[in-house]
Write a structure and sequence with these properties.
This protein is α+β, with helices and mostly antiparallel strands and 123 residues long. It has two helices and six strands, in the order βαββββαβ.
């Protein structure tokens, strides 16, 4: 089973998008462990919305394009990972360990764990 783990940060929170060397070291160790375990398929962090970002919104047939930075930054997607695990419980365990990295640095974070949709065989 594949799960997407997305983390959201507030761009205005100190340290959220400018991690210190200790955080980078802990994150590197976590990523290395997840990769060696064969769980991490892909993962990336994202830049602030002020760095070359845009948003495209379609509402009732009208498309609007907006350049960043975005006005509301409290729940901005800051990164993602795709995990290949045996269960939702295992995905949640890896996600909780990920959250702990932010907690250790005093940074508030929100993480969504969502199962990746897979087209049933024969469909």
């Amino acid at each position: 089973m594949r799960y997407m783990v997305m983390h959201k940060l507030d761009e205005n929170q100190p340290g959220a998008f400018d991690p210190n060397p200790e955080f980078i070291e802990r994150m590197g160790a976590y990523i290395e462990e997840a990769a060696k375990a064969g769980v991490l398929l892909v993962g990336e962090g994202l830049e602030k919305s002020s760095t070359e970002s845009g948003r495209i919104t379609a509402t009732k047939g009208t498309t609007t394009i907006t350049d960043g930075p975005f006005a509301e930054t409290k729940e901005l997607i800051a990164g993602f990972a795709i995990l290949d695990v045996r269960s939702k419980g295992e995905a949640m365990e890896w996600a909780k360990r990920f959250v702990d990295l932010f907690v250790q640095s005093g940074v508030d974070v929100e993480v969504d764990v969502r199962r990746v949709f897979e087209v049933p065989e024969g469909a």
